[in-house]
Queue: 4 jobs
Job 1
Amino acid sequence: MTFESTNRNKLLYPELSYKISGILFRVHNKLGRFCREIQYGDLLEIELKNAGIIFEREKVLPIQEISGEDASNKVDFLIENKILLDIKAKKFVTKEDYFQMQRHLKSSKLELGLIVNFRNTYIKAQRVININ
């Protein structure tokens, strides 16, 4: 097995991702499925602080190239300067959400983004890898 193929199969930031997942489950268990994104974000901010995780909320990312109608380049959370986290509270996560995360990853030059939809009965953060 070559270094390239080994590197391709490597899970990015497994320990930090695990901690974030636990916090996301806690927030979901406390608030349920039918709150607004801002409410999830507020509780998530408290839980991240309590866990001692360094983060920036509503991080404005540099704009390099905007395609499509959504010109916003702000991500809900930047965690430990490693992972972008985008929170949703809607029926479905769409392709546009995925492309938005790709845009965020590209402009931030980070490797990993997480999209979590709190409207789901069971939450699971969708991992998005920077394709650039």
Job 2
Amino acid sequence: MTENFSDIRELNDRIKEESAFIDLITAEMGKAVIGQKHMVNALLIALLSNGHILLEGVPGLAKTLAIKSLSNAIDAKFSRIQFTPDLLPADIIGTMIYNMPTNQFMVRKGPIFSNFILADEINRAPAKVQSALLEAMQELQVTIGDNTYKLEEPFMVLATQNPLEQEGTYPLPEAQLDRFMMKVVIDYPNREDEKIIMQNAVNDSFGKINKVISPAEILKARASVKSVYMDDKIENYIVNIIFATRKPEQYGLQKIVPLLSYGGSPRASINLALAAKAYAFIKHRGYVVPEDVRACCYDVLRHRIGLTYEAEAENITADNIITEILNRVEVP
């Protein structure tokens, strides 16, 4: 892909204008979600890229509040589904019920028919329930009885996992993890943010979230994100990063060969490119730079890299592997 300088400058000016609403959304979300800028950015990246997020963090870190605030700022429908071991697929997608007065079966749609879905503690539900949700995520449609129903767009799932308790859970298989665009790990807020959160909660002084954009405008923004310019060198950089997870020895990374059981799938390169474009859009830029790729790399790759028992025995994480790769692969 080649474009001359004047075309890129014109595109950059257009993207800067079309991405102005990002500041409005972050300002509205900032009324309720204090700190956690990385999580807010990840939500916006997934929203603009038509992706879904797997969020890992201890309870009480504003995961529910963040996606609910985002849905309020966009004037969209929000559903929260608490995943439990006794949940059934019909509890999510809906079911057919018998209507006695009419002597007919009718469809009762489930909570999946919303724009934003919070799948709370997704690893608490059995595989059949998880797969029902993931099918809806992938196909953007649900089949109830003999009829298929399209889900409303924008449609985004924020699934959470509690890293503390693993008893009685059903971990997501690798093939299902791969369907999430990003896995975001969030930590506790810093001291200053914690103090503001405490004061606002005690005084009940969190601001009201106002609608600043419509769902239709989000769909329009997605088209703008795809038009963000990505140079051939950046594309090669992304491919090199992904191939370094599959064949690290070709990139002088022999020491991580025994630590990796498998690398990123083609979904990894696709999602890394989409995330980098969305990140550039959030930064009001019409072109992707290597820093955009590096900023999204951990979230896109950490759940797509398989670690061996040797890596786990040495307490080496996927993030450690990604750091090694980013330090080794040549930056354009």
Job 3
Amino acid sequence: MNKSLDRAAVKLMVTIVDRGQGNRVVNIYRNRHVYLQFVCLCHGTASSEILDYLGLGDTKKDMVLSLVPDSAVENLLDSIIQKMKLSYPGKGIAFTVPLSGISGMVSQLVTKDQSMMEGESKPMDAKGKYDLIVAIVNQGYTGEVMDAAKSAGATGGTVIPARGISNEDAEKFLGISLLAEKEVVIIITQKEDKQNIMQAIAHSAGVKSPARGIVMSLPVETIIGLV
């Protein structure tokens, strides 16, 4: 059963680092009493020019999803900046997304050692300036998504393999199959650019295109690691 909660109580923290570094991130968070971690394999979509600038030869990434109490966010981000050197270009990115509900037992687990993580922390100055765009498309169409997004001002994104699962009513309404292999493209963008980027993606890779794309956005509250 889902439990309604104070929107500020628990956050989803997303940390994206080079492939093989995900376990380091997990260990850092575990040492700070963050118990729930999920690691996904993904890859980046930055252009060759950006990769050259960042000194990166490989776009394979680890994405770590963590449930954390809001009071611990700034301290956790401060720890990850120091230990993973996210203040340097190309080392990775971390950001938080608000949640509107969570199961009661999970909420208790996430917040039970909250006091251990509170204390002095550096202020984060990017709060509320960014959004997370999520595009779910048929496998093989991430190029179309990123070409459209970049034409509207995006600089890069991260791709996660996925598989759609749906029912007949949803497929009939949308006119698409949601059982095919999918790819999820996530893009961090400044709020003022979000609408143009989403419209560009919907036009080039939307539901009526061969990509059969679905595009949505989420607010980003705190972020580190942007170049």
Job 4
Amino acid sequence: MEKRTLGRSEVQISPIIMGTWQAGKSQWVGVEDAETAKAMRAAFEAGITTFDTAEVYGKGHSEQVVAQALSNVRDQVVYATKVFANHLKHDQVIEACHGSLKNLQTDYIDLYQIHWPAGSFNSEKVPIAETMGALNELKQQGKIRAIGVSNFSRAQLEEATQYGRIDSLQPPYSLFWRQVEQDAMTYCTEQNISIIAYSSLAQGLLTGKFGPDHRFAEGDNRAKNKLFQGENYQRAQRALDKLRPIAERHQVSLSNLALAWLIDQPQTSAIVGARNSEQAVQNAKAAEIHLSSSELAEIDAIGRIVTAHLDEDPVMWNWAS
């Protein structure tokens, strides 16, 4: 799989990145450590070299599973992890980073990201200058190689860059969720900031595996995802029906068609999770799909069947409901 440069750093990432939220188990159902570790290993063997995790995923459990799966190939993979919104004071950032280094069984993190802006989820509104100061220190010490932010607006991203180099933005971004295109994408392309898209399959909606009447199990976070609710969900079903002939033409899955479209967008690589080895191997194949400009435009138009009706709130979940 051909690598891409992360922002202006020396870190090389794969265009398909394995996401490991589910490895933390919290807010997911039916996830087993051994199966997840096997999936990570299969992803690596299929050419995916970049793995995205966070301290908050199962209170470090996801990071520990990443280490369990990949420690003996550490020099061949890229670890991206995140510090949560409640740990953004200077000393908290340093402590959180050391915790992640321990969980990941490594002495450096390739990409260390602010998971959510300060103030999110009723956290303390720590000045970005303070947080960036700590991140810059960690970078100077060689404990992290690059700094990224996640869930930041363009304005928040611009402010952060006043205090240090930001090499990536991690927003929710998929064919069915595209607010970043109206907000931060232009700035990212101008400043050579990589976009690392999460929920790149709209939490599985773009797989086409969920029927019109699907209901999630108790405890599954997707029950609160706006795309799985009401008219949004019905529009998504119509869009998927229009995507199927294009996928069939290429003899690929709906998932991989959506991923191929996404990694063709400016500066964009795609994070995608996997519950088992088969899914991980299939995800890697998305990097091999070549879409013509007319097909990209056709897919773009189909996606707007869904996105044209969404509000401007960049958060995908109705967590308050």
